């Protein structure tokens, strides 16, 4: 199974590894799910995870980013011609639509088009 993860899911997983986003991240780290990404997503992950307000362990962040590069699936995303409430979230949708991934998982569905494969973490867990 292939997924695209919005950054807010990763931040939630880092903040609470025992929560549902943490469970999803564990599935990725155990290679039971493939994380799809492109350079824009990797840059977004990096920019957010190193923010001082989170104070995440830098080694843990670097290890995660290296894991994504090695075990994730790099996608050449085609920009989708669809307006977005928050254009920053469009990068995830572009990879989702360009890659044939099964799901886009986000903590904020209202920023995305209403599509059945765009899920909240708890909805993904139910699957």
Largest sheet: 5 strands, parallel
Portion in beta strands: 5-15%
Low-pLDDT stretches are: none
Percent of residues in helices comes to 40-55%
Taken in chain order, the helices and strands follow as: EHHEHHEHEEH
Order of neighbouring strands in the sheet with most strands:
3-2-1-4-5
How many whole angstroms does the radius of gyration measure? 14 Å
Q: Based on DSSP secondary structure assignment, what is the total number of beta strands?
A: 5
Q: What is the straight-line distance between the termini?
A: 12 Å
Mean pLDDT: 95
By DSSP (H or I, 4+ residues per run), the number of helices equals 6
Question: Structural class, from helix and strand content?
Answer: alpha/beta
Shape estimate:
globular
Features:
globular; 127 residues; 5 strands
Walk me through this protein's architecture.
The chain has a five-stranded parallel β-sheet with strand order 3-2-1-4-5, with helices on both faces. The longest helix is centred in the middle third of the chain and has 14 residues, at 58-71. Helix 1 crosses helix 2 and helix 3 (39-49) runs antiparallel to helix 4 (58-71). The chain contains six helices and five strands, in the order βααβααβαββα. The chain has helices at 7-15, 20-29, 39-49, 58-71, 90-99, 121-126, and strands spanning 2-5, 34-37, 73-74, 103-105, 118-119. The mean pLDDT is 95. It has 127 residues and is α/β, with parallel strands linked by helices.
